[in-house]
Amino acid sequence: MRRLKAILVAEKRATVRGITLTLPLPLIDVLGSSLLQRAIDNLRNSGVEDITVVADFAQSDAFLMNGVPLRNAEVVTANEDLFSSAQEIFREAARGDAEAVFLSRVSSYFEVDMDRLLSHHLHFHNRVTRLWSGSDPLPMEAFMVSTSRMEDGVQLLRNHLHDSSTEGVRYRLDEAAGEYVNLLRDANELRRLASDGLHLRCGLNPVGKEVRPGIWVDESSHVASDARLVAPVFIGKRTRIRAGAVITRGSAVEHHCSVDCGTVVENATLLPYSQIGPCLDLSHSVAGERRIVHLKRNVTTEIHDGRMLNSISASPARRLLTFAGSLFSFMPEHFCRGLFGKLGQVGEARTASNGFGTTRAFNPSSKDKAELPEMSPGLAVVRRYGNQ
Q1: pTM of the prediction?
Q2: Yes or no: is domain 4-182 CATH 1.20.1250.10?
């Protein structure tokens, strides 16, 4: 492997269209690891050891969102302008002994053969080589830059990696050569990335223990004994799957999630720190931050009823306080109800949920109709009659 360096630019404002409100795209988990960490790991697996991440968020933000620190890369937090900081780091890298520097914005997921890319770059005597994807090629925000052409790389970063005035013969990723790309332009592509990883169509491996063929469950998660996991599926760390729930058809439930009793998650992704209520059907969707994106209809619906879809705090301290508050309010309330003979009312029962807050159970015998938000058919359905 020839000597290479890599600089990854991670922006806080980069998001997936229609999904995330607060979570930066580089920190979104897919099958148990963030896109930024997977970009680092892919470079390391290709033999690139000198990797620098330039971000406009702190390392502590990444730890808070993902629960683990970034590994195998130097992380530099830009004090002012993100790309100005990246220019200075590129100048330092170009003065070293590397033949070329790989520049990329963390806005997509790809697996590239770095040896093949560098050979292409040198063979055509390119000053700058841009990566392209697809049979109808689309430009990517990823470039190989010769260290002898320092100003070309600086100019590229001034243009925020959008284009280069000195672009040479383009390099197109080739699936036949084991390369892979997903541009992550919308929720459909984010969902497809998780599905491709679970069906082994790319090198994106689930992070967790394969408890049965095609079923990955993190050891810190809890799955009820009568919950059903139908391969291939992924259950992230510190996630709780309650009694009677069904996870099936390539679904991914990311870290710190809760799937309540009797809910079916089919061909869907539940984003980190999400809690879905009891007796619901979530299918062909991406859900998180109180939003559901239905992939077949390309419709985004905001959920106002926290009993259906809610967000869990990313802060461990807040989750602990929520659990403590739920526990202390749960016991006195039921003690008082027991004194007045009202403990047996099913419709008023509450369940403490081990750090995920409390949810009021739906009463299947109640005459009052549940108030559901207006949404397209097929997004989420309350199933009132047991296992029907």
Answers
A1: 0.82
A2: no
